[in-house]
Amino acid sequence: MAAIESEQLARDLSLVNLHNRYGSEVSGAITQDYDQAAALYRTCRRNGETVRRLIDCLIASVAIRLDAPVLHADADFAALARHTQLALHANSAK
């Protein structure tokens, strides 16, 4: 259990580091999007799927906030859509 919590903390800190490094000027993300990205990651993990790239969680967080479907060719977005309210563009990879 401690290992899982340690992993979650490391992932959350990675998102904080992304925010500190790039901020909203580059990504269009706001502070709440980073918190939501961490929550999306944990939701997928709880449901048995691991998102491999944390930036995908941040993109999903912004897309959910803006109610914008994501056009993708990445398994991470398919996993996020299965376990969250992320909408995928109809022309996305299957």
Task: Explain what you see.
It is built from 4 helices and no strands. By secondary structure, it is mainly alpha-helical. The longest helix is centred in the N-terminal third of the chain and has 26 residues, at 2-27. Helix 1 packs across helix 3 (54-66) and helix 2 packs across helix 4 (75-83). The chain is 68% helix and 0% strand. It has a single domain (2-83), classed as 5'-nuclease (Rossmann fold, 3-Layer(aba) Sandwich). The chain has helices at residues 2-27, 31-46, 54-66, 75-83. The model has no long low-confidence stretch (mean pLDDT 85).
List the helices and strands and how they pair.
Blueprint lengths: L1 H26 L3 H16 L7 H13 L8 H9 L11
Helix pairs in contact: 1-2, 1-3, 2-3, 2-4
Keywords: Hydrolase, Magnesium, Metal-binding, Nuclease, Toxin-antitoxin system
GO molecular function: hydrolase activity; metal ion binding; RNA nuclease activity
Pfam family, one: PIN
